[in-house]
Design brief:
The complex is a heterodimer of chains A (381) and B (153). Chain A is built from 15 helices and nine strands. Chain A is of the alpha+beta class and 381 residues long. A four-stranded antiparallel β-sheet of chain A has the order 1-2-3-4. Chain A is globular, with a radius of gyration of 22 Å. In chain A, 51% of the residues are buried. Chain A has two domains: 51 residues, no CATH class; 319 residues, Cytochrome-c3 Hydrogenase, chain B, CATH 1.10.645.10. By secondary structure, chain B is of the alpha/beta class. Chain B has a single domain, classed as NADH:ubiquinone oxidoreductase Nqo5 subunit (Beta Polymerase, domain 2), CATH 3.30.460.80. Chain B has a five-stranded mixed β-sheet, with helices on one face. In chain B, strands 6-7 form a two-stranded parallel sheet. The chains are: A alpha+beta (381), B alpha/beta (153). Chains A and B meet through helix 8, strand 7, strand 8, strand 9 and helix 12 of A and strand 3, strand 4, strand 5 and helix 3 of B.
């Protein structure tokens, strides 16, 4: 749809002067919309009076496709949901299948899932922090963030051969055990990663331009965060202390000592800071997990290639980098799921955009969108 | 809070909801009539289920099953709320007034299943373009471009 000149209209401002309201179309292909998001922004001068996200440009109908696939064939499709954090969708899906089929996962597999997912959280947050930097004009941040991310992606490549779509977590365990020396590679890297992250902290959050661009932008109250179903760093930035790893715990997370960073102001600054501090906590969890992990089987025995769980429905959720990612599966007893629903945290968080962007300038609209950290593979599914 | 404590808590506060409660795959499920859905959801919200985590529908041939997943931060628990909407003329109440989170998720269900939510402020298609015909997640949806995989088994 092109911008129609008739969409321009004159209204009367609060002081009685005529005001021209302009409709500005941002996206869907725009470098700062973090994917294929289109925002129809109504502006008064430079101030956004109404912002309406238009999504669906990446809708591939995954929920329909999977009704025609066997349970094992769906794992690589879940990779394509959140392509910045594929491990999470793999894991959330596998947890639902395991709940439905009553599969018990060996302990080593649980530890491997935790280690890979915590590394994935750092990689995903680096992407978000790097693009927050790029949005605010600090392009250096992008380079520093990608330096850290690159090392994690290399580790994943060593582990399962893939850099982006891992297909690593499988129903009943993981696809393969770690290569020799993999844990040592991680342990020799964690201190360097801490240094890089703290350098980024000083470089970016210590910069008064970045603080000026982020503070007070897109303020979300704790009440709205809960009511709108926000989760992950978006909710925690507003002071909602809700992390599934801690408060609705799953897998082996109760065995680790870690904190949940919580903001107080609910603005773009606090959301970005929450993401940064979560990276330190993830490194702590990874180190503890490598210390605790024991040799053993990495996959449950006797899982058939063609899973056919008993009829029923199951829901399970995990804390992904973006929030609570849930998979709802309905089985009718056949080898293909009757229905699969992805409860996507990015979708629920993006619904907040009209609320948060109102009253900010057009250039801050980009910051608000970036602070919600949407990944459109997951929003549109 | 485990599932049995949840049942006791629910039965203590709302005895009329108690017979509708059951446990499936370790999750509490409450099946109500769609006319009582809004009231039941409101009761559960008062009970401490402050978040609407997920909302979706399942095509069950003659009816559409609406599935709501509510979670509680204070109780660290989740519960399913379900109701059946008739396939002919599928209309149900919107929960937008209780949780604004329902806004986009109800639009998605409207888009993909064609279920109409009474009281929704802005019921339009969300993932598909406005001119799309039909509701793809219905089991009887047909499209010339759809390829059905052969049954290997």
């Amino acid at each position: 749809m092109t911008l129609d000149i008739k969409e321009r209209s004159w209204t009367t401002g609060s002081d009685g002067t005529p005001v021209e309201e302009l409709v500005v179309n941002v996206g869907p292909s725009h470098p700062s919309t973090h994917g294929v998001c289109r925002v129809i922004a109504h502006v008064d001068g430079e101030v956004v009076t109404k912002a309406e996200p238009v999504i669906g440009y990446l809708h591939r109908g995954i929920e329909k496709i999977v009704e025609n696939r066997t349970y094992l064939q769906i794992v690589p499709i879940t990779d394509r949901l959140d392509y910045v954090g594929s491990m999470y969708a793999n894991w959330a899906y596998c947890r639902s299948v395991e709940r439905l089929a009553g599969i018990r996962v060996p302990e080593r597999a649980e530890y491997l899932r935790v280690i890979t997912c915590e590394l994935q959280r750092i990689a995903s947050h680096m992407m978000s922090l790097g693009s927050t930097g790029a949005d605010t004009g600090a392009a250096t941040m992008f380079i520093y963030a990608f330096d850290v991310r690159e090392r994690i992606v290399e580790l994943f490549e060593e582990l399962c051969g893939s850099r982006l779509t891992y297909n690593y977590v499988r129903p009943g365990g993981v696809s393969m055990d770690v290569p020799e020396g993999w844990f040592d590679d991680i342990l020799s890297w964690t201190d360097a990663a801490r240094n890089s992250i703290s350098q980024m902290d000083r470089l970016f959050f210590g910069n008064f331009i970045a603080r000026g661009r982020l503070k007070g932008i897109g303020v979300l109250s704790a009440k709205d965060a809960v009511g709108w179903g926000a989760s992950g760093p978006v909710a925690r930035g507003s002071g909602v202390n809700w992390d599934l790893r801690k408060h609705d715990t799953y897998s082996v997370y109760p065995r680790f000592d870690f904190d949940v960073p919580v903001g107080s102001n609910g603005d773009a600054y606090d959301r970005a800071r929450c993401r940064l501090f979560e990276c330190y906590e993830s490194l702590r969890i990874v180190e503890q997990a490598i210390e605790q992990i024991e040799p053993g089987p990495f996959k449950a025995d006797g899982i058939p290639r063609l899973l056919a769980p008993r009829p029923g429905d199951a829901y399970d959720h995990i804390e992904s980098a973006r929030g609570s990612l849930g998979i709802y599966l309905v089985s009718d007893g056949s080898p293909r799921p009757y229905r699969m629903k992805v409860r996507s945290p990015a979708f629920c968080n993006l619904a907040l955009l009209p609320l948060l962007a109102e009253g900010h300038t057009l250039s801050d609209l980009v910051i608000v969108l970036g602070s919600l950290d949407p990944v459109f593979g997951e929003v549109d599914r | 809070m485990n599932i049995n404590e949840l049942r006791e808590h629910l039965c203590g506060q709302y005895p009329d909801l108690c017979p509708l409660f059951s446990i499936e795959f370790g999750d509490g499920v409450l099946v109500v009539g769609c006319d009582k859905l809004h009231a039941a959801a409101s009761d559960l919200k008062d009970l401490g289920f402050d978040r609407l985590g997920m909302l979706t529908a399942v095509d069950r041939d003659e009816t559409f099953e609406m599935v709501y997943r509510l979670t509680s931060r204070s109780m660290s628990a989740g519960i399913f709320l379900k109701c059946h909407v008739p396939r002919e003329n599928p209309i149900t109440h919107s929960l937008n007034s209780l949780w604004p989170a329902a806004n986009w998720q109800e639009r998605e269900v409207y888009d993909l299943f064609g279920i109409v939510f009474k009281g929704h402020p802005d019921l339009r298609r969300i993932l598909l373009p406005p001119e799309w015909v039909g509701h793809p997640l219905r089991k009887d949806y047909e499209d010339d471009r759809m390829v059905r995989r052969p049954d290997y088994i």
